């Protein structure tokens, strides 16, 4: 019998020690009584020991309504926005939501996943992402499709895989929403950690993405399962006309830092799909 170890610290997993913490976390993270059993099972699935589960830096209840930033102890500006969001006149994202605050432990785990491809972390992060959508979206099946922030071909060759695509596929399977490749990266940018300042990051992400060649949305009506929002796409590939229920696109990434990458992706989606399309982003870390 293989004894599972914690992906965060390497310690043994003890179900009895974890049970009380799982129940407490499930109560705090469930958006309704109906989602509690799902969130409970997802927390049970997390391959972390009791101590690491207790220490996970979940974002609190008081957040910026636009970017999802934890506002505990922060000054909320007008309309429930943080200082950064209140200065933006127009944002293509309906909102962003994230599950955990990005700390040193999170940075270490993300690096292990990105550059070593640890399969245990793929399961860990996909479970966290699924918890996030049940926490913030009462009916995840309302999304028409899921799409991801793409890697530039050069970066993809370096890593060998797109870690966010793996997480998106697991999320799509969990909630019954199709995953579509809608974007491609046209500009090779430096890692955001090496870019200096918010203004520089915003500029580096300008026109960094394009509508993916061969991306098709016309089949979404038939591809979606029951209860998912329907939309019909008419006209040419570059200027579709939306009719019926608006498309609701869920844009996935692992980390929200300044939000410049997600906003650039959303701008490209909005330019192609039109203003009727609603674009939401979901990340593990903020």
UniProtKB/TrEMBL annotation:
Secretion signal span: none
InterPro entries, per the entry: ComF/GntX_DNA_util-trans (IPR051910), PRTase-like (IPR029057), PRTase_dom (IPR000836)
Family stated for the protein in its record: Belongs to the ComF/GntX family.
PANTHER family: DNA UTILIZATION PROTEIN YHGH
Protein name per the record: Amidophosphoribosyltransferase
